[in-house]
Design goal:
By secondary structure, this protein is of the alpha+beta class. The protein contains four helices and six strands; from the N terminus they run ααβββαβββα. The chain binds methionine sulfoxide (SME).
Length: 146
């Protein structure tokens, strides 16, 4: 069974908040280079952290749309991959050991409703394969929302 089908099975019968928590834990457990996984949902013009899995909590629990890679991905409605966070001035630092990041918007009816944010402790950790999988996970969340 492929990973996406396993994930579909894992979230059967869960409500949306439970689904978010299951998804972040599932992703972190299945991918060694996903060191911190969070899901933010859009509330007004802020991204609000709803679920996360990783070694420690982030202080960035509310991110205005204008800030960070998270804000950029929401504003531009596209996946953003940062291979080296030290070379990206828009990056908002959460953890001293993060080296690269991917942020994938979640859409409902073509509008951004949230996003998946993953930090890696490895430089250039995220590939097109990660993007493809995570965009499918985001689609799944968009289907389940509301
Ligand atoms: N690095 C993000 C902020 C969120 S933390 O990674 C959890 C950003 O630049 O928007």
């Amino acid at each position: 069974m492929d990973l996406l089908n396993s994930l579909r099975q894992e979230i059967v019968g869960l409500n949306f908040p439970q689904t978010l928590q299951r998804v972040v834990s599932f992703l972190r457990k299945n991918f060694a280079h996903y060191n911190w996984v969070g899901i933010y949902m859009l509330e007004g013009d802020e991204l609000v952290l709803k679920a996360w899995d990783g070694p420690e909590a982030t202080q960035h629990v509310r991110i205005p749309i204008g800030k960070g890679i998270c804000g950029l991905a929401a504003r531009e409605k596209r996946t953003v991959i940062v291979g080296d966070v030290t070379a990206e001035p828009r990056y908002l630092a959460c953890f001293p050991y993060t080296k690269s990041e991917i942020v994938v918007p979640i859409f409902k009816d073509s509008k951004v409703i949230g996003e998946i944010d993953i930090d890696s402790n490895t430089l250039h950790a995220f590939t097109e394969q990660d993007r493809e999988l995570l965009e499918q996970v985001a689609d799944l969340l968009g289907e389940r929302y509301g």
